[in-house]
Write a structure and sequence with these properties.
This protein is an alpha/beta fold and 169 residues long. The protein is built from four helices and eight strands; from the N terminus they run E-E-H-E-E-H-E-H-E-H-E-E. A four-stranded mixed β-sheet has the order 2-1-4-3. A four-stranded mixed β-sheet has the order 5-6-8-7, covered by helices on one side. The protein is rod-shaped, with a radius of gyration of 28 Å. 18% of the residues are buried. The model has no long low-confidence stretch (mean pLDDT 90).
């Protein structure tokens, strides 16, 4: 953890609201009497939050507190694991290749990732935008048959082609 949680004598407040090791509120105390109370139980006085006045402190084992905070951070990281994967379609992609790319997209969506579908157009292909849109819509239908999808960002014409973002419903 980058920001160290103040404990015992490193707490700067003169008065603190104290919570016991079992979670019961002991009320507002002078910092020295709160530290003495924690030391008498051979535990630490840990500052939980400083956003309120007086700051909230808890009596407990500092090592266990750090361990529980690391576990919470790790759990939060796991929940926010969505990545943006990209599937590129060619202008002259065959129906079988569309199915293959759809299965690949299905795997990404099942893992909880978002999928960016892009089709790069070169040269004369840029003039045939409707044909390219139809290929992308055909791809979306193939993916939708495998797993229900939600369009995060609509099909957008860009200077080099088309892009859209889909996710699992």
């Amino acid at each position: 953890m980058q920001n160290q949680t103040p404990i015992n004598n490193f707490i700067k407040a003169k008065e603190v609201r104290v919570i016991s090791e079992i979670g019961e509120q002991l009320g507002v105390m002078d910092i020295f009497s709160a530290i003495d109370l924690a030391k008498s139980k051979s535990l630490d006085l840990i500052q939980v939050t400083e956003k309120v006045d007086p700051p909230v402190c808890r009596i407990g084992d500092y090592g266990k507190y750090l361990y529980s905070m690391q576990k919470k951070e790790k759990k939060a990281k796991v929940k926010t694991k969505t990545e943006l994967k990209e599937v590129r379609l060619g202008f002259n992609i065959s129906p079988h290749d569309i199915e293959t790319k759809a299965k690949q997209s299905e795997d990404f969506l099942k893992d909880g990732d978002k999928v960016k579908v892009s089709m790069v157009l070169k040269g004369r292909e840029k003039a045939m935008g409707e044909y390219a849109k139809n290929k992308i819509l055909l791809f979306l239908e193939s993916v939708d048959k495998l797993t229900p999808i939600k369009i995060e960002r609509e099909l957008k014409r860009e200077p080099r082609g088309f892009t859209l973002i889909i996710s699992k419903q």
